[in-house]
């Protein structure tokens, strides 16, 4: 999608704390910077609202590398956004992607694991 700009990165969890990424859950609401995390697929799947859209990240807390892909699903308008491809997440790494799609309502992160062939999501939404 041309409206999605790829901003990706990887790093180990300890380094990601320096970049401002924490691995605890907080309630979601309508403010820029609000975020939440849920345990999913052997790690933590998180979503945060940013001024240009949404930042999604996954921290691999397993002892195995994973082949994964990020998407987000928004309720209003009912739209699913994909990123620009899959990635490898090694043990202890935090992988992230920023969807620059503007502010939507009721967005939730989606994570596809090619190893299990399963989509993972969260029960929380960022508005």
Order of helix and strand elements from N to C terminus: EHEEEEEEEEE
CATH architecture: Sandwich
Q: How many domains, as an integer?
A: 1
Q: What name does CATH use for the topology?
A: Immunoglobulin-like
Relative helix content: under 10%
Properties at a glance:
five-stranded antiparallel β-sheet; mainly beta; 127 residues; Immunoglobulin-like; single chain; 10 strands
Report on the architecture of this protein.
This protein is mainly beta. It has one domain (8-121): Immunoglobulin-like (Sandwich), CATH 2.60.40. Helix content is 5%, strand content 51%. It contains one helix and ten strands, in the order E-H-E-E-E-E-E-E-E-E-E. The strands form two sheets. Strands 1-8-4-3-2 form a five-stranded antiparallel sheet. Strand 3 (43-50) and strand 4 form a beta hairpin. The longest helix is centred in the first third of the chain and has 6 residues, at 13-18. It is globular. Residues 1-30 have low confidence and may be disordered.
SSE blueprint and pairings:
Layout: E1 8-12, H1 13-18, E2 35-40, E3 43-50, E4 53-60, E5 66-76, E6 79-82, E7 87-89, E8 93-99, E9 105-113, E10 118-121
Antiparallel strand pairs: 1-8, 2-3, 3-4, 4-8, 5-6, 5-7, 5-9, 9-10
């Amino acid at each position: 999608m041309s409206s999605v700009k790829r901003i990706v990165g990887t790093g180990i969890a300890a380094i990601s704390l320096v970049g401002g990424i924490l691995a605890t859950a907080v309630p979601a609401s309508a403010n820029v910077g609000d975020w939440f995390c849920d345990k999913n697929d052997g790690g933590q799947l998180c979503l945060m609202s940013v001024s240009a859209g949404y930042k999604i990240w996954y921290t691999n807390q397993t002892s195995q590398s994973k082949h994964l892909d990020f998407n987000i699903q928004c309720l209003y308008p009912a739209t699913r956004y994909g990123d620009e491809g899959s990635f490898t997440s090694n043990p202890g790494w935090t992988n992230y992607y920023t969807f620059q799609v503007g502010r939507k309502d009721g967005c939730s992160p989606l994570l596809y694991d090619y190893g299990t062939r399963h989509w993972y999501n969260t029960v929380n939404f960022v508005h």
